[in-house]
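Consider the tokenized backbone below.
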């Protein structure tokens, strides 16, 4: 059962990390720019932060789901982070300053900061874990099972992001020195941030 919950957590995390989001778009950008070492450090930091966020989701599921204000704030924070990163990406692509270059070039610390500021994993894991429990696919009644499941979530996101980075690196050889490569991640993040903000405010109304 310990191995089963680990594998299920891994698969759910791998699949859940596929849709465009702040972190996987940044990994794609690093791959396209052929910064694989930086991407690997970034991915490691993301996987580390995924662990406590998934654990919080499982442990405090009832508390979080009973407070609509908490869930809405997760959405708002995710939207603001995406929008800010999108604008920063567009600005640094056009007029790179020493500060933005240093931030873009960082790996592990950048991954830690952006993962902490992007707690959208918590409501995601609340929903997924509740579904898996209802289906009878996981039972998290012991610390070993709980932490095997949470470890699986970290490994799953790590594998997906590593795959994205290397796929993007392969693609970078085809579209090398293309101006759009530098601008596209910022454009996508800005668009996603605006959509998320619109969704937040329309839900509030």
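A designed sequence for it:
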């Amino acid at each position: 059962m310990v191995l089963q919950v680990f594998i299920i957590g891994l698969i759910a995390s791998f699949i859940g990390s596929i849709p465009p989001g702040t972190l996987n778009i940044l990994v794609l950008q690093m791959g396209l720019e052929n910064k694989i070492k930086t991407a690997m450090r970034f991915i490691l930091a993301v996987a580390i932060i995924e662990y406590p966020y998934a654990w919080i989701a499982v442990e405090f599921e009832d508390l979080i789901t009973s407070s609509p204000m908490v869930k809405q704030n997760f959405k708002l924070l995710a939207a603001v982070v995406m929008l800010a990163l999108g604008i920063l990406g567009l600005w640094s692509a056009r007029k790179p300053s020493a500060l933005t270059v240093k931030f873009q070039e960082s790996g592990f610390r950048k991954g830690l900061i952006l993962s902490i500021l992007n707690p959208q994993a918590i409501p995601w894991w609340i929903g997924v874990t509740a579904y898996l429990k209802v289906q009878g696919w996981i039972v998290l009644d012991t610390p070993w099972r709980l932490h095997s499941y949470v470890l699986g979530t970290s490994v799953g996101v790590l594998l997906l992001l590593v795959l994205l980075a290397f796929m993007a690196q392969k693609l970078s050889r085809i579209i090398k020195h293309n101006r759009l490569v530098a601008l596209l991640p910022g454009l996508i993040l800005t668009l996603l941030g605006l959509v998320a903000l619109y969704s937040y405010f329309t839900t509030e109304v």
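The mean pLDDT is 78.
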